[in-house]
Amino acid sequence: MSRDRLSEDEITAGLAALPDWRREGDSIVRTAEASGFPAAIRVVDAVAEEAERLDHHPDIDIRWRTLRFVLSTHSAGGLTALDLTLAAAVDRALDTHG
Ligand code: HBI
C-alpha cells in the first residue's frame, strides 16, 4: 500500500467513513473506553497483530480503560492510506475486544 501523503480531499473522504476519528494536524486520533484494563490490553494486542501485518504502527496511550490511538505515517510526515486502513483495524479491534 502506498506511503504517499493523501490530499486534503482524500483525507476528508477517508474520515467520512471513520466517524469516531478526529484530525489533529498531521495525525488522526481516536479515544475509546474499554470495559476494563484486561479488555484494553486485548484491544491493543489485536491492533499490534494487524500493525505488524501492515508494517504500520500506531502511537498508543493506555490509561486503565482509556485508549488513545494516534495515527500518522512518520516516514511521509503526514497521513497516507495506511493510516486509514489501520484506523479501520483499530475500530474492528475495539468492536471485537473492547
Ligand atoms: N509506522 N506509523 C508508522 N509510520 C511509519 O513511517 C512506519 C511505521 N512502521 C514501520 C515503518 N514506518 C518502517 O520502518 C518500515 O516500513 C520499514
From TrEMBL:
Record has Magnesium as a keyword: no
A GO BP entry: tetrahydrobiopterin biosynthetic process
UniProt EC number: 4.2.1.96
Catalytic activity: (4aS,6R)-4a-hydroxy-L-erythro-5,6,7,8-tetrahydrobiopterin = (6R)-L-erythro-6,7-dihydrobiopterin + H2O
Top-level taxon in the UniProt lineage: Bacteria
Keyword Lyase found: yes
Keyword list, A-Z: Lyase
Recorded GO MF terms: 4-alpha-hydroxytetrahydrobiopterin dehydratase activity
Homology family: Belongs to the pterin-4-alpha-carbinolamine dehydratase family.
Protein name: Putative pterin-4-alpha-carbinolamine dehydratase
Organism the protein comes from: Kitasatospora camelliae
